[in-house]
């Protein structure tokens, strides 16, 4: 029987693609491999940003790096490419990294690099949800466990 496709933030699977050059490997996520075919994606890398890269946060309708660079275009391109990957694989669910300006769902950093979180979704999470893909994070993926 073919497994259901699940778009997953590559950093949660151990890929060193985070802004700081690290990963956010999550052993709990790996349990889902029994039921899902993982489709790993890092929207920021897909959008052309290097690893490592300056941290970025959402400020209004823009994504700004800590050095002041406007990286909105790269984040939007990465989101579109992640959506295309999900569609190609037939994924109707995504498991993304919480707090990320790309992948965060429900809470993201405040855009001022203060360490505070505010209600909102990352660029990719918002685009996926707008296109009917259910988004979960490593903090709330229990509904994906069968």
SSE layout and pairings?
Layout: E1 4-9, H1 27-30, E2 36-41, H2 43-46, E3 56-59, E4 62-65, H3 72-89, E5 93-96, E6 107-109, E7 117-119, H4 123-130, E8 134-137
Parallel strand pairs: 1-2, 1-5, 5-8
Antiparallel strand pairs: 3-4, 6-7
Helix pairs in contact: 3-4
Q: What can you tell me about this protein's structure?
A:
The chain has 146 residues and is of the alpha/beta class. It has one domain (4-144). 23% of the residues lie in helices and 23% in strands. The chain has helices spanning 27-30, 43-46, 72-89, 123-130, and strands at residues 4-9, 36-41, 56-59, 62-65, 93-96, 107-109, 117-119, 134-137. The strands form three sheets. Strands 2-1-5-8 form a four-stranded parallel beta sheet. Strands 3-4 form a two-stranded antiparallel ribbon. Strands 6-7 form a two-stranded antiparallel ribbon. A hairpin with a 7-residue loop joins strand 6 and strand 7 (117-119). The longest helix is centred in the middle third of the chain and has 18 residues, at 72-89. The chain starts with a strand and ends in a 9-residue tail after the last strand. The mean pLDDT is 97.
């Amino acid at each position: 029987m073919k497994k259901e496709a699940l778009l997953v933030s590559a950093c949660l699977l151990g890929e060193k693609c985070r802004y700081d050059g690290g990963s956010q490997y999550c052993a709990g996520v790996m349990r889902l491999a029994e039921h899902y075919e993982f489709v790993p994606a890092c929207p920021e890398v897909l959008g052309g940003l290097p690893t490592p890269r300056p941290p970025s946060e959402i400020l209004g309708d823009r994504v700004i790096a800590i050095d002041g660079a406007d990286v909105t275009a790269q984040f939007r391109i990465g989101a579109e490419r992640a959506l295309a990957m999900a569609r190609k694989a037939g994924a109707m669910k995504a498991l993304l990294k919480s707090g990320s300006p790309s992948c965060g769902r429900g809470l993201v950093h405040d855009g001022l690099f203060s360490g505070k979180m505010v209600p909102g979704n990352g660029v990719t999470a918002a685009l996926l949800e707008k296109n009917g893909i259910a988004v979960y994070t490593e903090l709330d993926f229990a509904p994906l466990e069968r």
